[in-house]
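Q: My collaborator sent me two sequences in one message, no labels, and asked for predicted structures for both. Can we handle them in order? The first one she listed is below.
A: Yes, handling them in the order given. First sequence, followed by its structure tokens:
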Amino acid sequence: MQDLTRSFSRRRLTDKPLKPQKWRYPWASEAGKTLPGNCGWHLLSLTKGMKGVRETPMKTFKLLAVASTLLSLNPALADEFKVAGLTFNAPKQFVSVKPSSFMRKAQLQVGADATEGQIVFFHFGPQGGGGLQANIDRWYGQFTEPRKDINARTEKSKAGEAAVTFVSAEGTFKAGPPRGPIEEKPGYALLGAIIESKQGAIFAKFTGPKATVSSQSSAFKKMILEAK
């Protein structure tokens, strides 16, 4: 520090270039490397000579910073959520996102983004949403092909005391809001569940590319059937 003060004072007083001065401290492993110009300042390396004191905390800090950034960029993993008095536990591969409409009680995505697979939950109250068969027919009608060509199937089951009807189909899916523009998506599949809860029917609809829906169909059904 005295050398630095002296060098700075001399330069201010004489305004003459100084010869580079080498600082040699035992903890500066690269002492002697000078910065460009005759400014009397030198490059010192502290971390190599102070292992265990500076380097480890710095590595820990960097790891924490990276982890924090990744968490802030990714959507929250879905876990537990409620719809009409029933609690659903979603698997870790289903990611919770903000519902895109006030009519949607919950919304999940499967894969990197919503174009890979989307699960939405609806509930319209004790008497809302229409009858069971009307909704099955409506879901089948969301494909451009006739029913005989979309591999249409239904399956009965139960989630506790609530009756569940699974509905499945595949073909060219007409994506879009009820009164909005329609986008036709070939090679798509639909796997729906109509849960007859005490507070009215809950409609859960899983749509996406056929391969995505097929690979996650067991996880979707498990989530529905284990609702409490």
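Q: And the one she listed second?
A: Here it is, processed independently of the first:
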Amino acid sequence: MESLQTTSIASDQEPSMKHCKRGGWTTFSFIIGAVMGLTLAAGAWTSNLIIFLGMIMLTLASTIHSLRPPTCVTGSFSCEAPSKLQYAVLYSALALASIGLGGTRFTIASFGADQFTKPDEQETFFSWYFFTLYLASTISLTAIIYVQDSVSWGLGFGLGVAANAIGLAVFLLGKRFYCHTKPKGSPFVSIAHVLAAAFQKRGKLERFQSQGYFHGDNTEATSGPTESFRFLNCAALRFEDDRKSDGSYSSSWWLCTVEEVEDLKTLSKIMPLWSSGILLSTTIAMINSLTVLQALTMDRHLGPHFKIPAGSFLVFSILATALSIFIIDRFLLPLWKKLTRRSLKPLQQIGIGHVINMFAMVGSASVETRRLRVVRNLHLDGEPPDSVVSMSGLWLVVPMLFIGVGEGFHFPGQVALYYQEFPKSLKSTSTAMISLLIGIGYYLSTAITDLVRRSTGWLPNNINDGRLNYVFWLLTVIAFVNFGYFLLCASLFKCQNTDNHENEASD
């Protein structure tokens, strides 16, 4: 999409940066799709249909002349701006695709893990699921982008429509073999339920005598909630006005079960650790977008006849992630277990990913420093934004590889951690928390980009006239501080579901 924004929608780098960042709002549509995907079996094919509609709209937007602005001529300083209708169609298509993606990409990972009972088997599934996911992304960033650049955007998106149709058909063919978990309703409604009941009953214990705690259909449970977050406990207390006319109690907006209260407490304990992934996603979002802008100004030729599309440089990161996941799962994790007789914990994997991500920031800053040195030596500052620097774009591969290897550690680690630690009622959407990280990361990257542009001269319209290397050094500092925050949260967090892992490791 960065290349489409630059070559087909916006003429200079500044609008491209803004629009590809604004495109991050569609990632928040993931969470909408995640709610839809709670039913999983029914929601997955519905979500695929929504993706299908989004891809059709993108295909139409790139082929029908009235839905796209005239193509900008290379080197032109004035291009016709897109109309409101054209923007509306583009962002509607992206929103539909994102909503559908939220109902499949992340919640389908939980659905697949539900087919297994052993934690090690579930983690292996996560690894292979994301290996396949990144491998598919590699194909889209190479073959599909090549078709879009060499033939037409319409054909490229049309291939996406065909791939989506095939995937939906394959999924439905195996429907009768799946192990389904019974939906318990939306977990977000359950969270709001507990908060509303706790707020409504605040101080009520001092004025009225309670009838004990409410356990719902679990008649064997007798214990009350834990002492942590005690202000939530009153949500599960039964009072006389909670009693129905027949003398029984039932769950309502003002009466929750002890299980619902404990589920919210569990979620509250993991949220600080989850929040440490926000800045991690932010730095990755920024380095991906800025790398495309760097590539547009560098020599991207491989031999005399082939030129790497700027957007395809991200494929090195994705390919590195896929290979890293394979190597980690097949070699590093078994070796670690053999040497230590313990499984590598998800928190440890996430921590390793944080460290490697910092090396990626340093690598990007170093490459940009070298690129700007060439710009100054050739006196290209002040030239048109599309001026090509006589420096190979392959230098960008190094930080992209670091980004990919880091994701190979922290991305599956985050998914495994949330699936392992989330309460059962929220397990189906545990992996969808990654989508929220991505959405917030894009929004925050927009805020950081705008702040840098307003307060410094590091990011002008033409990056050859700026100090993009300073931006990368700023991201390095942010990544370092965030890693310290992660270590603090990890040291305070106590994993509750580690028994199975320890037992399997000892076996």
